[in-house]
Amino acid sequence: MDNLSAEKVCYIIVKAREFDVKVDPVAPDPGSNPADDDELDILEDFAADPTFDELTSAIQGLNRDEQVELVALVWTGRGDYTAAQWTEAVSGALDAHNNHTAEYLTGIPLLGDYLEEGLSALGYTCEEYESGRL
Question: How many CB atoms lie within 10 A of CB 68?
Answer without folding.
Answer: 23
